[in-house]
């Protein structure tokens, strides 16, 4: 079974770098579609890893099981980080284009910090 192993340190570093660069690109261009691309990729990865975990073959079950659980954990953490990056860039874009945001997505977060 082919697994995109995001728990590998080099792969994790590359994904983190790409995510930070996409968030920075969105901030500089004031377009929230750039972090949304990263968010969509991580959502696809978490679905793919969950399906692979559900149809796990009987060969090397313990090793594959732990790898897939690690991958799902990393995917969920990256979704969390990317989602806040998306909300941040969306807030910047709304302020720049003087659009009214439907809800101030990050106000609930920043008021409690």
What does the model show?
By secondary structure, the chain is an all-alpha fold. It contains four helices and no strands. Helix 1 packs antiparallel against helix 2 (33-54). 75% of the residues lie in helices and 0% in strands.
Structure characteristics:
4 helices
Report a brief summary of the structure.
Helix content is 75%, strand content 0%. Helix 1 packs parallel to helix 3.
Category from helices, strands and their pairing: mainly alpha
Helix coverage percent of residues?
A: over 70%
- Annotation field: number of helices: 4
Question: How widely separated are the two ends?
Answer: 44 Å
Give a quick account of the main beta sheet: strands, pairing sense, barrel closure.
none
- Number of E strands: 0
What is the CA-atom radius of gyration, in angstroms? 17 Å
Q: How do the helices and strands line up, and which of them pair or pack?
A:
Blueprint: H1 9-29, H2 33-54, H3 61-96, H4 107-112
Helix pairs in contact: 1-2, 1-3, 2-3
